[in-house]
Write a structure and sequence with these properties.
Blueprint: H1 2-11, H2 13-27, E1 50-53, E2 60-65, H3 75-88, E3 94-98, E4 116-117, E5 128-132, E6 140-143, E7 147-151, H4 154-170, E8 179-183, H5 195-205, E9 210-215, H6 217-225, E10 233-236, E11 259-264, H7 273-286, E12 293-298, E13 304-307, E14 310-316, H8 320-329, E15 332-334, H9 345-351, E16 355-359, E17 373-376, H10 381-393, H11 423-431
Parallel strand pairs: 1-6, 2-3, 2-7, 3-5, 4-5, 7-8, 8-9, 9-10, 11-12, 11-15, 12-14, 15-16, 16-17
Antiparallel strand pairs: 13-14
Helix pairs in contact: 4-5, 7-10
């Protein structure tokens, strides 16, 4: 009886979708559909996305992005969507191809409730469309003669290059068109030396047919110093989240408490969560931390006993309002990033008046951004502990804090407006050459 009940439940598409989402979230931020992995000897992220001829003749922009569901839209995906919105504001025919999500509904992200949701097998149509493509094994994507692609991660770059090669063959275009590659970090560093490392790195070496757009000049400089060459490359600078800006007026008068705010993401290796915890344990065992509070934000994790009765408590991912309030009431912040990308949390903390400890990496040095930032020469528990002791020794409830002198670009409404005025049209010109 129980077995029959389970069979009936599993036939319900909503229940199947719900169970799949639970499994996906338990594995990582975004995982691929099992349909995309026909063999363990393959790399599922770049599972072939075959192209077929389309009768759709109009100019169309296509964004290749891992996911669109709200639970995945933060960090790099959020920036990619904003970038696409800026590029596409003057165009009617738009398509978002979800390389790592097998299903999507309007309830998954209400910002796209007006968009048509199509399957890979569906006929092309005009307007704004979303196509979940994680279950693409054995299926094809309709590609028109005037489709232009925008890649947002290393595996989407490989897929974009493949699609445009197939497009050139189908329509006898001669030269393969350019596509736009939004680069937001040195992605080989997300993996050990491996096939994925090599594939990610290959997208920066096999650069024919692409226009690179870097998330920050800091990252662009790293690539240039590392010897990666792009025929055309541009960059934009980080800006403060629009939801945080209304709270900036309260920074100077904010009452600070004995609180150390940690950007803690145990599942993201480059944020060096373990080093932060080791440094905190050293500190509480070397110094009397009576009255100090330790809060972790960014990802929910279990409480961590630091010693002498001190605990690192996790608040997980906060609302913008909740994040702003804790920024306004905290004294010190710790946010590490073992990569050439600056990352946004240390910049946000500094803008809100926290005394922030982060790390340098190659040419990256965030101390330029604000007097509130201490950039360690390298990330090590001892170095972080010493800096934390120095900062907390300066705490005084009577001393007012300030955001310091932060770059004007950080307060822009749109990061892409900081680019040259003709850059967007120039990118389009490069894309269709």
């Amino acid at each position: 009886m129980l077995r029959n009940l389970l069979k009936r439940l599993l036939k319900n598409q909503r229940i199947k979708s719900f169970l799949r989402d639970i499994y996906v979230e338990s594995q990582s931020e975004v995982k691929l559909s099992s349909d995309l992995q026909p063999s363990i000897s393959e790399i599922p992220e770049i599972g072939a996305l075959a192209a077929r001829e389309s009768q759709f003749k109009s100019f169309r922009l296509n964004l290749l992005v891992p996911a669109l569901s709200t639970k995945h839209v933060f960090g790099g995906i959020a920036t990619a969507l904003k970038f696409f919105e800026e590029l596409s504001k003057d165009y009617e025919n738009l398509r978002i191809i979800l390389t790592d999500e097998a299903a999507f509904t309007p309830e998954d992200n209400i910002n796209y409730k007006e968009w048509s949701i199509l399957t890979l097998e569906a006929h092309d149509q005009s307007g704004k469309c979303v196509i979940p493509a994680a279950d693409r094994y054995g299926k094809t994507l309709s590609v028109g003669k005037n489709d232009i692609f925008i890649a947002t991660a290393w595996w989407t770059s490989i897929l974009a290059k493949s699609l445009q090669s197939k497009q050139a063959v189908i329509y006898d275009l001669g030269n393969v068109r350019r596509f736009i590659y939004l680069i937001q970090d040195f992605e080989p560093g997300f993996y050990p030396w491996s096939s994925r490392y090599a594939l990610a790195e290959s997208t920066y070496k096999n650069t024919s047919g692409l226009v690179a757009v870097f998330n920050t000049s800091t990252l662009k400089n790293y690539f240039e110093q590392a010897g990666f060459n792009f025929k055309k490359s541009y960059c934009f600078e980080p800006v403060l989240h629009e939801g945080l800006k209304p709270y900036l007026d309260r920074v100077v008068a904010a009452k600070r408490y004995k609180r150390v705010l940690v950007y803690g993401r145990p599942s993201t290796a480059r944020n060096a969560y373990e080093i932060i915890v080791m440094a905190l344990k050293m500190w509480v065992n070397e110094k009397n931390c009576l009255g100090w509070e330790f809060i972790s934000v960014g990802e929910m994790h279990k409480p961590i006993e630091l010693g002498n009765g001190n605990v690192l408590k996790s608040l997980g991912k906060l609302s913008i309002e909740g994040y702003a309030e804790i920024l306004l009431s905290s004294y010190a912040g710790i946010s590490l990033m073992i990569s050439p990308h600056p990352s946004y949390p240390p910049l946000e903390m500094a803008a809100f008046g926290l005394k922030v400890i982060t790390n340098k990496y190659e040419s990256k040095d965030l101390s330029y951004f604000s007097d509130n930032i201490i950039a360690l020469d390298y990330a090590a528990p001892e170095l972080l502990c010493d800096a934390l002791i120095s900062l907390t020794n300066q705490f005084s409830e009577s001393v007012q804090t300030s955001s310091g002198a932060i770059p004007e670009t950080f307060l822009l409404d749109n990061p892409f407006k900081a680019l040259p005025e003709n850059l967007i049209s120039e990118l389009y010109a490069e894309a269709i050459m």
